[in-house]
């Protein structure tokens, strides 16, 4: 391991004490000050961001994700003020009891310690993640993408200057060099880093999953289904499915596959087609659905290949499959779901219950769009991502889960 | 992957529905019935166990761990009855709120799904783990050690026969072949297994950590310190330290290193020596402590090598180090602790608070023996192990943590 990476890791461990000494009010105040500092440096941030943008082709889809303008920087400040207002997730008493021999045994929430976040193009992640870590008393190691390195280093520098202004250890927030070769050092630093959160492409998450010795919280892909059951209100179903697909196709809670009960396939798809049409949604349909959609004159129709199921489209595209019944829908979802967000449209309460119970996903919906899976909507505030794993955090991974537990036992000389 | 391993994995996924359909009372009843069946087959279990024992040298320390006799089998039955009485950890409502647009958003606990447990010599783990998984509605894949394979297969067979008797899918509990070559198949079956829990030696845990793509909960080693601060009641401290070392040295919450404040080193060690002496505790002492202990005539004294700090002894052995003050004690613990159980003996309330806050461990003690870190003592019932990691479960990993969360959203056609 390079010496400076070793220094970075030591610095992070050492900085835990400094953030631990800051009061709850102090943390809020610091975040408010940071909001003001970022706002005051809008021009400088834009200038640094331009260096990154100049290295990228404006036609690259990453260009827009990389871009920071006045509105987006104002958004960063606003989000810092929001995080400041969120309740401190640490110090909560989870349980307490006194044993027969007089031991007081308490369980409390405490910061995780050192949180590593590996992310890609969007530089706003630097500020979002740092603010959530600061709010919850965690030290963070940020490793942003090479594309955004000038912006990220400048933003981290602003955060560090505010930490120093408050008499704190500036290494509470460190931005690692973007060079890919250092990622392995970070992933295997289990003595120094308490958790790593990868945010970004499948390839990044795969790299982290394969190589990490540090525990990982994955915020993964969403392959989301909506099952239109035989008793569904078809107007509602067409409206909800359309919303789930088109309102923001590039995000993980957007719909990918429509499962429709054979008994309502023709009327449902006939209602759906004119709603998808204005968005030119490319539909990959199985043979039966193809025939129905073709008969409606739908223009953006393809035959579904096997790979079109279980595929996260992130675009104005979706697949359609006709199923026999709820059981077949459940089997399909079990086989293809990424366990993110899954919905059923039905007026049959018993079938709805069965679906909600049996589908294995972070969020399960009855008669609503999967697009609602989100930390803000779920009442958690800003999120680091949507966890599709089952340990520690499932669904929106937000401030409340940037903690671990600690058992605290107070005695008077008891022995066992 | 071998076809039969693929079948095993498919069977496990498929069996989730069967256990999900069993009521809470049904689960309790099944565990009580299993207790009776195990009791009724005591002779047969002993006969199968003898096959395993016959393959092992009775002088091997693993021999005793492998052995099942009437008393131990009665213990298994008793533990099944206890698990039956524990509260169902699933179906608990964690949060609920209705959004402005009328969505009801609930978060509930649900079973993890398929739990894999990889363990070594002790065949009682087969029954303990299966019972905790059944109680919490989880399917389990058990992979016991080669040493215990006849006993494990027989015990799993008994459990499966009871499942069938209840009209359930017997694949709710499956015992994998003990052959080491199948471990990798299990560790990388992230599409089938929701969590893997390794129980056993450091080498096993290392193998799992290095190769697992399935999320892991480690139940690791305990390198436990007790710091005797300057204001400690020295009689209490000597008694507590002795208990922490000698009451059961082979377990993870036993003391490994005594840190003692220089100002009380001589009187404390002079009180301690005669208490450790009857147990012939081999003490690895730093130069100063060595001199003091030597002057008391202590017979089982060694000079500490650097490797004697951070070492889990699991035996009547410990290391001693004299420190300047609380800060130095905290630094030592931070460098050498395995984050399991750490204690301070002090009458200084402020120093106690500082220690409890700053030490990064699953359990932190003021004026008590580290030996209390245990699921039963902490009020959780039977445990699968003591987690020294920070995600999901920290400290005793018991029934309450064999769950994940699920967001359940009920609407009336809402879109975003």
What does this entry show, briefly?
The structure is a homodimer of 416-residue chains. Chain A is α/β, with parallel strands linked by helices. Helix content of chain A is 40%, strand content 21%.
Keywords:
globular; homodimer; Aldehyde Dehydrogenase, Chain A, domain 1; 4-stranded parallel β-sheet; 7-stranded parallel β-sheet; Aldehyde Dehydrogenase, Chain A, domain 2; about 20% strand; about 40% helix; alpha/beta; 14 helices; 2 domains; about 425 residues
Plain-language structure description:
The structure is a homodimer of 416-residue chains. With 416 residues, the first copy, chain A, is an alpha/beta fold. Chain A has 2 domains: 235 residues, Aldehyde Dehydrogenase, Chain A, domain 1 (3-Layer(aba) Sandwich); 149 residues, Aldehyde Dehydrogenase, Chain A, domain 2. Chain A has 14 helices and 16 strands. In chain A, the strands form 4 sheets. A 7-stranded parallel β-sheet of chain A has the order 10-9-11-8-7-12-13. A 4-stranded parallel β-sheet of chain A has the order 5-4-3-6, with helices on both faces. In chain A, helix 2 crosses helix 7. The longest helix of chain A is centred in the first third of the chain and has 18 residues. The first copy, chain A, is globular. The interface between A and B is large, with 67 and 67 residues.
């Amino acid at each position: 391991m390079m010496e400076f990476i070793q220094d970075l890791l030591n610095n992070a461990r050492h900085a835990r004490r400094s953030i631990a000494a800051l009061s709850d009010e102090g943390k809020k105040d610091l975040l408010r000050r940071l909001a003001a500092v970022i706002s005051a440096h809008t021009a400088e941030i834009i200038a640094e961001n331009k260096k990154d943008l100049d290295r990228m082709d404006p036609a690259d889809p990453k260009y827009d994700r990389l871009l920071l303008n006045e509105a987006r920087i104002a958004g960063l400040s606003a989000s810092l003020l929001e995080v400041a207002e969120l309740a401190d997730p640490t110090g909560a008493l989870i349980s307490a009891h006194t044993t027969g021999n007089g031991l007081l045994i308490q369980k409390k929430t405490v910061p995780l310690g050192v949180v590593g976040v590996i992310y890609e193009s969007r530089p706003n992640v630097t500020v979002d993640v740092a603010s959530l870590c600061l709010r919850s008393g965690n030290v963070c190691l940020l490793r942003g993408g090479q594309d955004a390195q000038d912006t990220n280093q400048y933003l981290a520098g602003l955060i560090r200057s505010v930490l120093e202004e408050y008499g704190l250890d500036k290494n509470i927030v460190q931005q690692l060099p973007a060079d890919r070769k250092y990622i392995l050092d970070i992933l295997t630093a289990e003595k120094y880093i308490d958790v790593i959160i990868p945010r970004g492409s499948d390839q990044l998450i795969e790299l982290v999953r394969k190589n990490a010795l540090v525990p990982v919280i994955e915020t993964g892909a969403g392959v989301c289904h909506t099952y239109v059951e035989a008793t569904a209100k078809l107007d509602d179903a067409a409206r909800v499915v359309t919303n789930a697909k088109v309102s923001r196709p590039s995000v993980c809670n957007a719909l990918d596959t429509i499962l429709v009960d054979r008994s309502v396939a023709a009327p449902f798809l006939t209602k759906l087609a004119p709603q998808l049409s204005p968005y030119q949604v490319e539909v990959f349909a199985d043979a039966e659905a193809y025939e129905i959609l073709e008969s409606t004159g739908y223009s953006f129709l393809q035959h579904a290949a096997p790979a079109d199921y279980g595929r996260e489209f992130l675009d104005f595209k979706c697949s359609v499959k006709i199923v026999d019944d709820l059981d077949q829908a459940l089997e399909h979802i079990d086989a293809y779901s990424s366990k993110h967000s899954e919905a059923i449209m039905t007026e049959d309460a018993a079938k709805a219950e069965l679906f909600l119970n049996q589908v294995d996903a972070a969020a399960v919906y009855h008669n609503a769009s999967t697009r609602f899976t989100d930390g803000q909507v779920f009442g958690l505030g800003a999120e680091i991502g949507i966890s599709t794993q089952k340990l520690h955090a499932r669904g929106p991974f937000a401030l409340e889960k940037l903690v671990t537990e600690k058992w605290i036992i107070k005695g008077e000389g008891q022995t066992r």
